[in-house]
């Protein structure tokens, strides 16, 4: 199948998973991950109805953002990969949502850059939900303290949490991590911090993520095919 057909299939599965869990499908947004995808395929996805695109690296995203704007393709861009503090100035204001804020230092730098531009930058906190040494993100027990610190910043808006669980071919292996993320967001809300988004779930497990409360799912391979 081509990009259009793949996109339609993913959207259908999201709707089915949401309805099966008693959720409103409109509360789940598909982030089509365009890492290493040539722009012509990206354009095909946009024209087929993709409204939100996710990129892992600022330097790869910027030419695509410019090209989409030049072609008059209306789309929202999210940064889903690791962001270094020295790249924050290039990301702020370009991405409507930065998923990967993994510490107060990065949050403060984003806040500083956003203040310079007179804007408020939406962000998510990245949680290392399984405590993997090879992954970024804060420990689950540090989520609430970090949320409190970030919420005090004037030019950053905390929208929710993001995670990348350990890779597994069995979606059920991811489910306990998704459940824990839902619990962490509930703790943050109970502390009086308004944040509604849960970015979790990728090609191999996005249906389970939707069933467990994901509001953003990051899907690339199921739409664009395996990367070379």
For the report, how would you describe the main beta sheet? 8 strands, parallel
Domains (count):
1
**Would you list the SSEs in sequence order as H and E?**
HEHEHEHEHEHEHEHEH
Provide the residue-averaged pLDDT. 97
Low-pLDDT regions: none
- Reported CATH architecture: Alpha-Beta Barrel
CATH superfamily: Alanine racemase
Descriptive account of the structure:
The protein is built from 9 helices and 8 strands. With 228 residues, the chain is of the alpha/beta class. The protein has one domain (3-223): Alpha-Beta Barrel (TIM Barrel), CATH 3.20.20.10.
Q: What brief labels describe this structure?
A:
228 residues, alpha/beta, eight-stranded parallel β-sheet, 9 helices, 43% helix
Please give a quick description of this structure.
The chain contains nine helices and eight strands. By secondary structure, the chain is α/β, with parallel strands linked by helices.
């Amino acid at each position: 199948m081509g990009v259009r057909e793949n996109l339609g299939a993913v959207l259908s599965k999201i709707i089915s998973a949401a309805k099966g869990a008693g959720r409103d499908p409109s509360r789940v947004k598909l982030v089509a991950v365009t890492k290493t995808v040539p722009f012509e395929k990206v354009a095909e996805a946009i024209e087929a109805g993709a409204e939100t695109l996710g990129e892992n690296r600022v330097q790869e995203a910027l030419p695509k953002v410019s090209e989409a704007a030049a072609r008059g393709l209306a789309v929202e861009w999210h940064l889903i990969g690791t962001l270094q503090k020295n790249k924050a100035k290039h990301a702020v204001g370009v991405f409507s949502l930065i998923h990967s804020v993994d510490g107060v230092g990065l949050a403060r730098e984003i806040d500083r850059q956003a203040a310079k531009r007179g804007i408020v930058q939406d962000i998510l906190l990245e949680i290392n939900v399984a405590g993997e040494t090879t992954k970024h993100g804060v420990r689950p027990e540090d989520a609430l303290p970090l949320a409190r610190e970030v919420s005090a910043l004037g030019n950053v808006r905390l929208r929710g949490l993001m995670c990348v669980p350990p890779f597994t071919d069995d979606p059920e292996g991811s489910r306990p991590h998704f459940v824990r993320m839902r619990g962490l967001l509930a703790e943050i809300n109970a502390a009086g911090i308004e944040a509604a988004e849960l970015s979790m779930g990728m090609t191999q497990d996005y249906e389970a993520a939707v069933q467990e409360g994901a509001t953003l799912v990051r899907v690339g391979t199921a739409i664009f095919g395996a990367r070379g």
